[in-house]
């Protein structure tokens, strides 16, 4: 157990410093190379841009890694509550390092990117992941929750388009918006049903009782807090998607009317 603890601490620290490096150095260089519009952004916009570049990198790493673990890691699936150290723990340690890194950036640049909901989200996630890594429990659940990160690249891309002043109803923004809504719903909203269904199915069983009251309550409360925020974000995203679809329909109707007049 001591060796695993050292491993998870090492992974968390490596993750933290890697994402710090991405934010302070790599993103500036990379963004200027791939997007000419980056250099014309204000200082505040560049800070949030770099923050979202790092967020996208983190989401792709833990999301894809998490999906692989969810589908193929038999060690994690064999015992969802008490499964021994596995790839899922490593993925959770990577996510923990990112969350600590992002929290430090949010606090340091609070006037630019400060957001109380992100503080709540990060703290709730970190507390849950700390319990997973410290006690060696619920790695399967922790990894399953990380699949939610697969929606973040689309959310961040929407912000990039807006920062670069793409037309609001351009094809790129519309396609990304629809994908964002669908993926966000699948990995953050629809996933609630199997998650809470599993929680109900193990309630009262011997492995569940062995978790202890602290971990049982932490499992429920942290997930509920995160899911309430996910529902709030889903409502906001859905309203935007409906507005875009309504605009497209209006434009099509207008074009059909104009074509009819021309005929």
UniProtKB/TrEMBL annotation:
PROSITE patterns hit by this protein: TLC (PS50922)
Highest taxon listed in the record's lineage: Eukaryota
Pfam family, one: TRAM_LAG1_CLN8
Membrane topology per record: Multi-pass membrane protein
Record-linked InterPro entries: TLC-dom, TLCD
Membrane-spanning intervals of the chain: 6-32, 53-72, 92-110, 173-193, 213-235
Subcellular location: Membrane
A GO-annotated cellular component: membrane
TLC domain boundaries: 44-246
PANTHER family membership: CT120 PROTEIN, TLC DOMAIN-CONTAINING PROTEIN 4
Protein's name in the database: TLC domain containing 4
